[in-house]
Amino acid sequence: MKKLLFGTIFTGIIAINAACSNNDSHSSMHEHDMSNMSTKEENASQDSSKQLPLTTNTEILSAKEINLTAKEALLQINDKIKLPVYTYNGSVPGAQIRIKQGDRVKIHFKNELPEPATIHWHGYPVPNSQDGVPGVTMNAIKPGETFTYEFTATVPGTYWYHSHQESAKQVDKGLYGTLIVESKNEEKPDQDYTLVLDEWMSNQDEGNMDMSGMDHSNMGHGNSTDGQHMDMSSMGHDMSMYDLFTINGKSGSAVKPLKVKKGEKVRLRLINAGYMSHKLHLHGHEYQIVATDGQPLKDPQPIKDELLNIAPGERYDIEFTANNPGEWLLECHGDMKGTDGMKVKIQYEGGQTNTDKANAKENLPVVDMTTYGKRALGQFTLDEKYDVEYTMDLGTAMGKGGMVYTINGKTYPETAPVNVKKGDLVKVKLVNHSPADLHPMHLHGHFFQVLSKNGKPITGSPLMKDSLNVNPGEEYVVAFKADNPGNWMFHCHDLHHASAGMVTEVKYKDYKSNYTPNPNDTTNQPE
């Protein structure tokens, strides 16, 4: 991700543009390639590295009672670069929780980080008390403390989890994992791979300094090494500093190949844990998009040589038949320096015969999800009567401390909530007035149906989502049923935008929470 690896959250952030090749600024400080260090610097680096263990391989946990521990580690992204990270169970991504629909699960979370943390179940309709948002649904879990999350896996699909405490920083540092809920009656593919996309900053051209031993208490999003804030607004939309894109915490040749056999049905679960959109191209095969944000699509048609654009927070499940033996790429398209690292080889058993080549700069069409799949009657329509209607004008403005991101001209907690009661049908219009910033909007605790884009009704499969990317100038109308009582966040999943104001809440009237936030407790920092 944007690897805001250390420091305070600075509101003067420039947002991301849409696409691998044109994304906005997020910043960070990382440990760098040490190949050019002096002996003294090398020894200091080795000493500081010894304080942290290397990350382990991501494990799969499928029991109904699971232990997750947040702890620090060093992530070896490629053969040159190690970065200090936060992990769940010692890996990036963290442990995959893989359970069956209908399972009642308990997750015992222990925090061994030097700061408070939580777990938010991104996209999953858990009870409000289990949503993991500090100051809204619970207190952040302090270092050394344990908290048990408990919920029933009601809805199958591909989800993920991450910290919601100072999330713009902690998610940046790698504090995320995946949640897969298997359907009771779905036919399993022969191969099932989960691929988590992210971006980091290596700072290899900044003097190859080792940052892991420095005091980061005063650092902001900039990459200046004297610990002072850098005004991001002066940097425009230059994302060249984000030169390290990863799949499952690895980049380039370090990404583990996906093994397949001829004739197998292969499912790829694609999750964007970063803050940039990425356009992926599957070489050599037709594929179908079978689900988005965990929700199935109706009669998905085959796609060949079209790019699948995945925005922050989104998930797409694609399937293909391994009918073209050889070695093929799934790669990100764009012209940024880091793009080349976001690719993985698909290797057939029994030798390679094709001569596949990377073509990341080739201009290919992008799949239009508003027309994809077979049109059918969804849960909601544009012209039915709604109990609550809310317009969400998304904007960018200059605040006292720098750039802020607004909903209807206000920043959280001054934004007007979406007030509902249980059973209400709710229609929300999302309009992006920001001149250059995309806003991937994420609703907690509910799925919404996308009804129209720029005034035109959706003509493909009914599109149920929990995260929706809204580009500058775009307008979407979505609808959902208020069927999960609580106080739920509705925010931009460029978490830098959320931390700088782009958050509101869906609040249920008469909902009585067992949790009462302490207004004097400064520990809870939800964004």
How is this structure best described in words?
The chain is mainly beta. It is 4% helix and 35% strand. It has three helices and 32 strands. The strands form six sheets. Strands 21, 22, 24, 26, 27, 28 and 30 form a seven-stranded mixed beta sheet that branches. It has a six-stranded mixed beta sheet with strand order 11-10-13-18-15-16, with no helix packed on it. The chain is globular. The relative contact order is 0.17.
List the helices and strands and how they pair.
Elements: H1 39-50, E1 60-61, E2 65-76, E3 82-88, E4 96-100, E5 104-111, E6 120-122, E7 146-152, E8 157-162, H2 167-170, E9 176-182, E10 191-200, E11 244-247, E12 258-260, E13 265-272, E14 278-282, E15 288-292, E16 295-296, E17 308-310, E18 315-321, E19 327-333, E20 343-348, E21 388-399, E22 402-407, E23 418-420, E24 425-432, E25 439-443, E26 448-453, E27 456-457, E28 463-465, E29 467-470, E30 475-481, E31 487-492, H3 495-499, E32 503-508
As an assembly, this protein is single chain
Q: Biggest sheet: strands, sense, closure?
A: 7 strands, mixed
Strand fraction band?
35-45%
SS class: mainly beta
Quick recap of the structure?
With 527 residues, this protein is mainly β.
Features:
about 525 residues; mainly beta; 7-stranded mixed β-sheet; 6-stranded mixed β-sheet; globular; disordered N terminus
